[in-house]
Amino acid sequence: MKVxxxxxxxxxxxAVAKIFTDEVKANPDCILGLATGASPIxxxxxxxxxxxxxxISFKGVxxxxxxxxxxxxxxxxNSYYTFMHEQLFNSLDIxxxxxxxxxxxxxDTDAExxxxxxxINEAGGIDIQLLGIxxxxxxxxxxxADSFTDxxxxxxxxxxxxxxxxxxxxxxxMPHYALTMGVNQIMSAKKIVLIATGxxxxxxxxxxxKGEVTPQVPASIxxxxxxxxxxxxxxxxxxx
Length: 240
Ligand code: GLP
Fold this sequence. Notes:
Layout: E1 2-6, H1 9-26, E2 31-34, H2 41-54, E3 62-65, E4 67-69, H3 80-87, E5 99-100, H4 109-123, E6 128-131, E7 153-156, H5 159-165, E8 177-180, H6 183-187, E9 191-196, H7 202-210, E10 228-233
Parallel strand pairs: 1-10, 2-3, 2-6, 3-5, 6-9, 9-10
Antiparallel strand pairs: 4-8, 7-8
Helix pairs in contact: 1-2
Bound molecules: 2-amino-2-deoxy-6-O-phosphono-alpha-D-glucopyranose.
């Protein structure tokens, strides 16, 4: 694991965006795994800036998002589909047919998860996967569990995750289920970049980097990947 501590979330965004735009320059048909949440927003802002300033085209790029809420219309302001379009896709020249999500409203969620995993594998697998980390060390929506998960699946969100994410839902109730890529699917990405900022992430970050590899700390599995870069601000790195 390569750990980099920077002063601000904006500096992290610039550094992480460079990893992604360098990949797009070198490999215009690359496959990117993308994440939602507050952590990747500065990265997306910086990718958009580079796209505009340097004219890098995303027309050949395919993206696969980590997760999506269940029982939330695709167009809802809190769907991850909406988030990604607002924060990134609408400002790039990426083609709509090249952006991919799990369908959290599928009637047969098992079939939907197999479809998604097969599509990623048939596309050649993810070149770079972006991750945030939950306060309980979840990645995607892989919550602490008794074993590491494999492919995509439907998950019941923990109270800790509902508490952390419900601020976005105003008066509407937050979904309690989601579809997410599984841990092994995430681990099959050729390169993984994780961002954590703020004091609430410090314990999860310590356990991820310094603790034992255990499904009770889902992000700890990243210790077993041979190309992981972790970007932290000082608050998130404070317990290392
Ligand atoms: C959500 C997402 C994760 C994300 C995490 C942290 O639950 N499913 O992919 O990494 O929360 O979010 P934030 O970056 O807002 O702290």
